[in-house]
Amino acid sequence: MEKATPQDPEQLAEAARLNELRRLLIGLSQEELRRLQLLLSDPHEFAEELSQLLPYAIRKMIEKGEITVDNLLPFVEDAMHKSIQKNPQRLADILFPVMGPAIRKAVSEDLKRMIAAINASLESGLSPKTLKWRLQAMTSKRSFAEIVLANSYVYHVSHVFLIHRETGLLLHEEQAAESKSLEADLISSMLTAIRDFAQDSFKQATPGSLDEIQVGELKILVEQGPFAVLAAIIEGQPPADYRLTLMETIEAVHYNHVVDLEKFNGDTTVFRHTAKFLQQCLIKAKKTSTSKPPYLLMAFLFLGMAGLGYFLVQRYQHTKLLKSFANALESQAGYHLTNSDVKGRTIYISGLKDPLAAGPDSIREAMNIENRSLEMHFDAYVSADPAILLKRARVFLNPPSGVNLSLSGQTLIVSGKADAAWVQQLGQLTALPDGIQAVDDTGLNQLASDLTWIIPAIEEKSFGFDVNVIKLDNQQQIVFDSLVRAALELENYNQIYNKTLAIYVRSYTKRSNNALANEKVARQRAEEFISLLERSGVKKDLLKSQVLFAEDLNENVSLRTVHFAVFDKNQSGND
Fold it and tell me: Residue 84's CB: how many other CB atoms inside 10 A?
């Protein structure tokens, strides 16, 4: 390898002086001169250098107004046309990232318009107006949704805002003449904050956009652009194609102010010229037609209210009847109700019933309740009611006609007269009826000294009968025999102590419909029962008929029943 020969210091100094002289005369260094010579001698290098400067030159010419976009549009269109003819696949590959989102957005907008039409149809409901629209759809060969949309628009666009997308600053605002002013800057900041929050919180592979906000009855529609955002505040439901109006407006703004938007430095005065575009979005539609009263709807409503009223009245009557029937049945000895309900026209009752308790038919007939309207289910149980205990004791002991049974707590008091065989049988009892703890027979075969057992034995008795029928069944015959024994003892008591006690044979009825006729029938029932007592040995002067009206009593009584009360004939007034 050859060693570089050292140069003379004088030669180096001379070269430096020449370079300094060249720089002073030309203003370029030696390297810059070689670069300039290369550009002039090589067209490819010159073209490469010029391609970097051409976009900036065109932009400067547009800003100065020397050329417009319309001047360049034919060249761009010709270039794209030739490119497509030469290699269409290349353009398809270039547009592929853009076409997918564009197609999805178009489909989304169509779906939104369809849903808006369906919602408008559903909100119309069934009315004479809807029937008229359906007839129009049939005669005009248009869809029902189109007819609804054509007749249902009631909306008002009050404000339109143009907002810079990157900074969130308000570029321009337009509002309707009758609308109140809003804090435009505050709304602009709110929309930007919501957009940023959504993008930060809901991260997706492809960035989304804020399209709509519902604030009470107000709706804010947002249309996104590359450099600006258009927001419209709407009262009511806008037409489905209003979104298209917003799209066209934001496109017009970008078309005419693309440079201003791209190089925005905070000066919004240039965007006052966008007023002509934004004002096109301030649309409204209010109906002023006077509609006739909806007679058909009013008729349907009246019929519905009448039907509901009838149902409620029926329900109330059945519920009231159930309550009365349940109270009357509960007051009967030997019943305990656990559930009562009304379903439709049927009364359901369930509970417990002693086998010795009287049947519910007399109460049902007194209340005019049909048998098919009742569903009753009773489980057997042993009642501790005094009347049932006495019935159980009579069945268990089968006392002769001269013996009377009464209760004092859970002690059975046996009094009256009986033969020696029955008295011996009573003394040899090894078990007592259910509910009886002891038997007191001290008054057996002894003269009664007071009325403590006679009066309850008479007044506890009651008999229920069918309409216009006085006939005793087997169970009632047992009770009747006990009544006769007590009545005969009352006669002996009057003879010994010179008393004037007698028995009221009471029959109950109501004043409703025909009070006189009801009283006559009730008195006949009492007289017929007096005849039964007379035939059993009770003297006529110990019996007196009495008719009582249910409305005059403070207690619930069953109609077509006969009850008894002991009274002093010398102290009682005329009946």
Answer: 13
CB atoms within 10 A of CB 179: 15
Write the DSSP assignment of 17-36 as a string of letters: HHHHHHHHHHS--HHHHHHH
Report residue 414 as tokens.
């046996």
d(Cα 67, Cα 532) in Å, to the nearest integer?
Answer: 132
- Identify which of 324, 382, 374 has the alpha carbon closest to the alpha carbon of residue 345: 374
Q: Where are the domains of the chain?
A: 14-54, 153-285, 306-380, 388-568
- Tokens for 152? 């249902």
**Is 391 within 8 Å of 479 (Cβ atoms)?**
yes
- The pTM (predicted TM-score) of the whole model is 0.30
DSSP secondary structure code for residue 269 in this structure: G
| CATH placement of domain 388-568 | 3.30.1330.60
**Average pLDDT for 377-400:** 84
User: What whole-number distance in Å separates Cα of residue 472 and Cα of residue 483?
Assistant: 13
Write the CB contacts of 508 (distance below 8 Å, at least 6 apart in sequence).
522, 547, 548, 549, 550, 557, 558, 559, 560, 561, 563
Q: Which two tokens stand for residue 445?
A: 């075969």
Nearest in space to 229 (alpha carbons), one of 182, 282, 158, 170: 170
State pLDDT tens for residues 474-517: 888 888 888 888 888 777 677 656 678 888 888 888 888 788 88
Of the candidates 489, 501, 470, 497, which has an alpha carbon nearest to the alpha carbon of residue 538? Answer: 489
Which residue type sits at 327?
N
Q: Which CATH architecture group holds 306-380?
A: 2-Layer Sandwich (3.30)
- Of the listed ranges 46-60, 75-89, 236-250, 283-297, the least confidently predicted one is 283-297
How far from 568 is each of 117, 135, 292, 501, 503, CA to CA, in Å? 91, 89, 80, 4, 9
SS3 141: coil
**Do 68 and 62 touch, CB atoms closer than 8 A?**
yes
Distance from C-alpha of 186 to C-alpha of 193, rounded to nearest angstrom = 10
Chain centroid offset of residue 399 CA:
66
For domain 153-285, give its CATH number from 1.20.120.140, 1.10.3720.10, 1.20.910.10, 3.30.450.70: 3.30.450.70
